[in-house]
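User: For my dataset I need records formatted as: sequence, then structure tokens, nothing else. Please produce one.
Assistant:
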Amino acid sequence: METQSDNYDISFFKPTTELAKINRNLTIKLLLIWVIAIFGFHTLLKIIEKPTPESAYISFQEVWPNVQSENTTVAENQIFIKSVLSVLGKLSIQASDRIILDKAVSSIVYKLVPAQSKESFFNQVSEFNKIKDEITSLSDEEYVALKVKITEESASLLNLNTYSLEAKLIPFELIAESMKSYDNKNNELLEAVMSKYLIHNQSFLTDFKFLGFPFHYFYTSVFLLILFVGLCWFYCYRTDKIHEQLGIES
């Protein structure tokens, strides 16, 4: 005597009912739309992107050959320092890259210091390097006094406003040991670091503004969320219609 066994196994890829087949096809279609919307857009960005340097990198390139040959004017040294400081002001900079930039800044700033003031300036930076790693309060009087003094002297040397971001950065970027003995091998790494932070891949999709945002930012941060919600709503809507067509009651 034959016994009947009910098989309740369900496979998305091998549907056994008309409803399951329709549901599978609908799900795949919506998933493809979602994948193309995400990865298709990013692929398009990669295809049309073009390396575009910031103005600071263009200025850097103009004086870099003379900096390497140590044949610079005061104005060229100032341009060089300002371009490097534009990188040091970025939040995303890696610690190893910061050291490379700090060594270059320290060496060039020291060159700009008048001969009669070099030893005094060097001692101030040496002392500040020690204090900033030891203090427990940012209001420490000796720390604040040294920071202000180095800031003012450096700003004067570089023709910067004392209250500018660049001037405020300098005390924290100067390394005393790199002032008097600069390793020229550092230059081999410096150019790569500068291009890493000052050259960006851009296109009309990144330059075009939509509702006040760069289009690529709006697309990935806002539009894709709206699209996802829209696809979910459409899936529910189509599922209800399919149930009606097949005569299935909830």
